[in-house]
Design a protein that fits this description.
The protein is built from four helices and no strands. It is mostly helical.
């Protein structure tokens, strides 16, 4: 869980997350070009730093892992919703619909 929260404090991981989300948004065609722009930016910003280029394989792997985490999280929320129904209690949250992946 700590990795899920702390990834948003690392610019490289934020860029990786944004690139991975292009797969979720059904726009994988944009990934190669934006990957190049991102790596150019990281190399210019990382002069003297330890920014390593992001690879296409890394973006795909990140997306698969991120999608798995969210599927698991939503499965637990649906189970919680089912338990609320079973116990005849109000479920205080709105569940999202299916995400096309």
């Amino acid at each position: 869980m700590q990795d899920v929260v702390t990834r948003y404090y690392d610019f490289r991981k934020v860029a990786l997350d944004l690139l991975g989300n292009l797969y979720k948004e059904q726009r994988p065609d944009l990934v190669p070009e934006l990957l190049q722009v991102t790596n150019d930016f990281l190399s210019a910003r990382g002069a003297g730093g330890d920014y390593k280029p992001i690879t296409l394989a890394e973006v795909r792997s990140y997306y698969r892992t991120d999608a798995w985490i969210w599927r698991l999280y939503l499965a637990f929320r649906r189970f919680d919703h089912w338990l609320h129904q079973l116990l005849r209690k109000e479920y205080p949250y709105i569940l999202p619909g299916k995400t096309k992946r």
